[in-house]
Amino acid sequence: MTQNQIDESVDYLNKRGFENPEIGIVLGTGLGQLIDSIENPIEAHYNHIPHFPLATVEFHTGKLIYGTIEGKSAVVMQGRFHLYEGYDFLDITYPIRVMHQLGIKKLFVSNAAGAINLEFKKGDIMLIEDHINLQGGSPLAFKNVGEFGDRFVDMSEPYDLQMRQKIEQIATKEHISLKKGVYASVVGPQLETKAEYRMLKIMGADAVGMSTVPEVIVANQLRLPIVAVSVLTDECDPDNLQPVKVQEILKIAGETEPKMIRLFKELIKEL
Q1: What is the pLDDT of residue 61?
Q2: How far apart are alpha carbons 251 and 255 in whole angstroms?
Q3: Coiled-coil segments, which residues (predicted)?
């Protein structure tokens, strides 16, 4: 990855009309309905943006959408990249660097995750307060990382405290039950064994998924304030574990998403 590549991606998007977005949004698996809220949308498919990776997962559509949400300009990633698709950490986080250079000042991230905390149920939304990186690497571990920001990035508070407090207040006002917890990020794509779920619980994870952490690390390097939520799509009880079907995960994500959209839209309105 070079600065020239990022410049070329940004130049292409600027020419398409992606002008000074204030907010960047990353939509997780099964969470695409937010795009219906974008006014005057402009689309750029990943395969047309210079140096952009391509989305390979069948239910990730693979485009950047620019437009207005609640009066604020935003750029939305519909379809993200994962280690389990064969991408590396630089591919996965490249769009965050591009959105940052486009001008975003805040980053909103969503994902679908499994509930490790047995007090949480499928269909719940969890505000991510902290994370555990179990993906076996870092998006900052490359030779010329110093050209893009600090190499040794502080992660004592990776998720913005102010935005977390605001989203909690919004959830109370909107009568949306909002859990809070720690997100563990694994490689996937296989789901976890009973023993792995027990291990994750001992480690202090409340939810587990296969994304988000690389993007959050890079956003912290770029000093971008982040708010992130998990839509909990299955319950990971090792003593009563049932086989999980991907279609069921997508169904729960789709049913829960309107609540997540309300939280995001109200937060955008207040920023």
Answers
A1: 64
A2: 6
A3: none
